Amino acid sequence: xxxxRAVFIGCVHSSLxxxxxxxxxxxxxxxxxxxxxxxxxxxxFTDLSPLARANGIPVFHAEGSGQDEMAAWIRDRGADxxxxxxxSYLLNPAxxxxxxxxxxxxxxxxxxxxxxxxxxxxxxxxxxxETGSTFFLMDAGADSGPILSQERIPIADxxxxxxxYGKMIATARAQVxxxxxxxxxxxxxxxxxxxxxxxNWRKRGRADGQIDWRMPASGIHNLVRALAPPYPGAHALFxxxxxxxxxxxxxxxxxxxxxxxxxxxxxxxDIRVQCGEGTLILERHExxxxxxxxxxx
Length: 297
What we know:
This protein is of the alpha/beta class. It folds into 2 domains: 4-201, Rossmann fold (3-Layer(aba) Sandwich); 206-285, Methionyl-tRNA Fmet Formyltransferase, Chain A, domain 2, CATH 3.10.25. It is 24% helix and 26% strand. The chain is built from 7 helices and 14 strands. The protein has helices at residues 13-22, 49-54, 67-76, 93-96, 119-125, 161-185, 217-226; strands at 4-9, 28-35, 59-61, 81-84, 103-107, 115-116, 130-137, 147-154, 200-201, 234-238, 241-250, 263-267, 270-274, 279-285. The radius of gyration is 22 Å and the shape is elongated. It starts with a strand and ends in a 12-residue tail after the last strand.
C-alpha cells in the first residue's frame, strides 16, 4: 500500500466528520488542514482548527489570503492529494493543481444530476424519495469532475433536514474511508460524468424560505422540513413580522370557501392553517399565544 500525504479543505459539520474518519485511515497522512474561522454562507459552519491542532496538524485559515497563497501552502506541505469536502467556494486552477493527484470533492446528490447549491434542501423541498452521496475529482467546473464513489441515500416521508444530514454523514464517512484506502492502494478509479444527463440546482435566497399559503399543504410541509436545523428555518408573515416555523404535519381537508392562510383552529401549541390545497398543522413554531381562529397569516 502506498502512503499518501493529503491536505484537507473544509469548514462545515460534515467536513469535521469526514476529517475524523480520514485521520484513522492507515497509509494516509493528513499533513495540513485548510479551514475558516467564520462563515456567512454556511448554517452548519465548523472551524476545523481545534481538531487539526489536537492532532498536531498545521492549519491554514483562508480569510485574508488569496487562493494563490493557499496553493503555495499546499505545495509547501508536500501534499500528494487534497480532499475538499464541505467548502462553498470554487477553487482556482492553482489550488486544483497544487497536489499532483488532484483534489477530491464531495456533493450530496446523485451526480451528474442536481449539481449546484443547497442539494439537501432542494431534495426535501421537491419531495424526492432519494438523493446521493458522491465523491469526485474536481475540475474547473462545479461538481462536474469524474466520479470516484457514489451511494444512494433514501429519503423517508418524515425525514427533515437534520435527519437527512445525519444520513448523509453516516454514508459519506463509510465511503470516504473506502475511497482513501483505494487511493492508497492505487485501486480507486474515476468514471467521467455523462454531461448529457446533468442538471443544476440554483442558489436559494431568503425569499425562498417564506411560506406561501396558496401552495398545497404538502409543498409547504416539504419546505418546512427542508429548512429545519441545521438550516435557518422556514418563515411565515404575520402582521408584517417574520415568524419561524420549524415542524409541521398534514391536517384534514379544509372548507372550500376559506382563503389560504386563514387560521382554522388553535389547540395548545398546534395551529391549523388553510392552504391552497388541504390544511397544515404547525407543531413547532415561534407564534405567540395571541393567535386566534380567523386570523390570517
